[in-house]
Amino acid sequence: MTELDTIANPSDPAVQRIIDVNKPSRSNIKTTLIEDVEPLMQCIAAGVEFIEVYGSDSVPFPDELLEVCTRQNIPVRLIDSSIVNQVFKGERKPKTFGIAHVPRPARFGDIADRSGDVVVLDGVKIVGNIGAIVRTSLALGAAGVVLVDSDITSIADRRLQRASRGYVFSLPVVLAGRDEAIAFIRKNGMKMMALNAGGDFSVKDLGDVPDRLALLFGSEKGGPSDLFQEASSGSVSIPMISATESLNVSVSLGIALHERIHRSRVAER
């Protein structure tokens, strides 16, 4: 087993770098902290450039992660657990984490270059839902996700990274305004279908549409904004047996994209 160096001095430059990245008040986010084995592995696979990866000396460093870091020439060191406790203080203390350069923000062109449907989230603000939607969108063949009025200012947001388990860097996630999102959809000849309770069509009908779609989801309380509703070509509902008021937006997204899975597979081929 590879013997890893251990950072035992709190004055080590790496410790200050971790502290700086961990500050919630940063305005210019160029580096980010990614924690836990699965997100680290996923981000490395997505091509995210890491400065260094660390592990607490209180637990063995995962062999699979060490192997990947070695193969990608990513430096790995352990940190004395007392320093880890000082750096993260009252919050959750990760056993493995890394400092990485934030990739350039995704653009509409990145989505246009891909073949799948486009997911548009209008006013969806719960980060856990957004993270789940990113993972599901990637798994079920969507071309990308457009976030409108999400209160997220960067996909490097640690909450979003946690919620998506690191998959936020594996799919284009574009932060946009309503007008520019609508302009992109129209420019690329897509029909926008809004998911809501009183839709014109059943979600089952989505599987019969051969064209690329923009699937619009609003917040669970308010639904999509009037501007998006007016720009939509139609609305889609998910039949439910009980009198449940609504489904979680990430669940609705999964159902809709699953109905589109055949089209996504054909487009990918």
Care to describe what's here?
This protein has helices at about 15-20, 35-45, 65-70, 80-90, 110, 125-140, 160-165, 180-185, 225-230, 250-260, 260-269; strands at about 5, 30-35, 50-55, 75-80, 95-100, 120, 145-150, 175, 190-195, 200, 215-220, 235. By secondary structure, the protein is α/β, with parallel strands linked by helices. It has 2 domains: about 5-100, Ribosomal protein L30/S12 (60s Ribosomal Protein L30, Chain: A, 2-Layer Sandwich); about 110-265, SPOUT methyltransferase, trefoil knot domain (Alpha/beta knot), CATH 3.40.1280.10. Strand 6 (about 120), helix 6 (about 125-140) and strand 7 form a beta-alpha-beta unit. The longest helix has 13 residues, at about 125-140. The model has no long low-confidence stretch (mean pLDDT about 90).
Helical content band: 25-40%
* Level-2 CATH architecture of the largest domain: 3-Layer(aba) Sandwich
Number of helices: 11
* % residues in beta strands: 15-25%
Question: Could you give a short account of the major beta sheet?
Answer: 7 strands, parallel
Q: Kindly give the count of domains.
A: 2
Broad shape: elongated
Structural class: alpha/beta
Assembly context of the chains = single chain
InterPro entries: Alpha/beta_knot_MTases, Ribosomal_eL30-like_sf, rRNA_Methyltransferase, SpoU_MeTrfase, Thiostrepton-R_Mease_TSNR_N, tRNA_m1G_MTases_N
GO biological process, one term: response to antibiotic
Protein name: 23S rRNA (Adenosine(1067)-2'-O)-methyltransferase
Organism: Streptomonospora litoralis
